[in-house]
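Q: Okay, next protein. This is Cytochrome bc1 complex Rieske iron-sulfur subunit from Streptomyces thermoviolaceus subsp. thermoviolaceus. I've checked the sequence twice, so it should be correct. Can you predict the 3D structure?
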Amino acid sequence: MSSQDIPEEKLPAEPGAAHGAVKVADEDNPFADPGLPPHEHRIQDIDERAAKRSERTVALLFTVSMLATLGFIASYVWIPNDKSIYIWPLGHISAMNFALGLTLGVALFCIGAGAVHWARTLMSDAELADERHPIEASPEVRAKVHADFKQGAKESAIGRRPLIRNTLLGALTLVPFSGLFLLRDLGPLPHEKLRHTMWAKGKRLVNMNTNQPLRPEDISTGSLTFAKPDGLEEEGNEEYQTEIAKAALMIVRLQPDNIKDKRELEWSHQGIVAYSKICTHVGCPISLYEQQTHHVLCPCHQSTFDLSDGARVIFGPAGHALPQLRIGVDSEGYLQALGDFEEPVGPAFWERG
């Protein structure tokens, strides 16, 4: 029931007084206001030595939080990820996971416990009663809130107790490093692996289907052939999928007069051009070739590249042209690479310059 629904004679006589806020119950107000119990001062309010002990306790909790955060980082760096330990009653668990969970839990708990102990023992505990007010705050209320905030900051004693302030700032500063340290590497760092493939000077081009080295006469005009480096075999090679994902090659024979890009012509052999098969958008294998236009199409998101013009992007979301492999022939007449790709294959990555 709202105040508008109460008969006027039943409303409190004093403006702003709550209904039933009387010392003694009567017929009109059957519920008496019990009031607030007498305020009891904390020992920290009357004994500065007790306040100092609480201050040191809070600082100790914040310091333990900092040490636990450093322990989290140390555990992540130095504990092998395949090491396990026996913890009763959990059994055998990962030593790294146990250490990370324990240290991060201690770091967060100590910040929370320190803040609670600080509030309960050193901050002001005065009890304030305030009348109900409209939802929309008046200018006077807003000014009062600002004043109360400043008063609360003053009563928190954060300015007078630098030990608490500094250890709190230290704990709050170090805790985020736990997450940043995890994001440092979501797996082994690639280092230079994304910049290099198995292609090198003298590596023969091997047909992926027949597993035989290719000669120029094996490539007919208008055809699309897929190749891999000589020596890259799938059987018994744990790195095969990683290496083929970078070294997969597509070979097309064009009429030299149809090649518009000067460097592409120089890096070709008798009109045979070799480009990375990996799309520069999200790394899908390119497999569709339009003989009349010399365009290759990625089936995933329809990125289209012009093989007669440096494999530049003419349509779709791909960000840059396909890398070209410089090729020639060896002394036995087989097609060979004259070096590695001069730029990383596939999509761009954040370390790429």
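A: Here is a summary of the prediction. Residues 1-32 form one domain. The helical segments are 43-46, 48-78, 95-121, 139-155, 162-174, 176-183, 240-247, 262-266.
Q: Noted. On to the next one.
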